[in-house]
Predict the 3D structure of the following.
Amino acid sequence: MRLAISTGGGDAPGLNAVIRAATLSAISRGWTVLGIKRGYAGLLGEDEVIPLTADSVRGIAHLGGTILRTTNRGNPFSFPRQQPDGSWKDFDRSDELIANARNLGIEAMIAIGGDGSLEIAQRLVDKGMRIVGVPKTIDNDVSGTVVTFGFDTAVQTAIEAIDKLHTTAESHDRVMVLEVMGRDAGFIALHAGLSGSADVVLIPEIPWKVENVSKAIMDRDKLGRKFAIVVVAEGATDESGAASIIGESMAGQNRRVGGIAQQLASTLQSMTGKECRSMVLGHLQRGGMPTGYDRFLATRFGGAAAQAVADGRWGHMVALQPPDIVMVPIVEVLSQLKRVDPRHDVVQTARAVGISFGD
């Protein structure tokens, strides 16, 4: 077997652990392993395809990022190319990718990525490629798996920030608004907010009003708690539903959302008369060493992906459904985005301990 591995979409702590486990599991079967640089760019002549050996993956499980690098602008079905006049135009280069993979003798591929990367993988499967998927997203919004690697590290990073904000907020009687990642799903905000004893948690799944957030803060003030911690997911829009757009997106890239923390802090300061400050964690949540749990899960995923290749489970994704790693058809995964269930016990527990969701 000549196996290729790719990492696409945003980076996440644990990617290198998956690459290591999949590579070593493949080598133990006598297979040859190749690494495709920058998503699928290496198969389109835009980057390299490199050999992956036991030496090349030694000592990488604890490292953040990905040794194969990644991109969220490398969709081979809509690959951006700059035109002579400076504009950008998208081209379908999927047939070119398949031909190049065939010329390299690639017989199967492990595609590590989120919804976007998995959708590309499924489309390539439909065109005859033999691909197994591995779910990757710090947002934990991929269906079919209870959790994805990278999520635990992102939550831990957010909790550490909340812990530090608590001390400075209480010292100055301030309201601190912390923005975390979560374009469509509020898992990071919810888990970090509950674990970090936040006072308000705002997520995309629960409609909220700024008046209710202000009231929660002033209710605390009446009880003598002069400070407050507000955790907001970047995609948690207020009742108007208008997302905050930050900067111009690159060609082939989804729109960049964020900036809600600054807007919310400014509004709350006007409404409450209290000093409000904002902080955006941003890409800090993607960086750094993965937690032990994420290394453990990523290693399980990598080993399971190699086994799935051996079993010929094309068009399937490895997933954690405790206590087992199972295989889920990618088409089922893509049928719906996983989001926070407002009725879930985690939400109910948060409400019970006094956290406001602004609703």
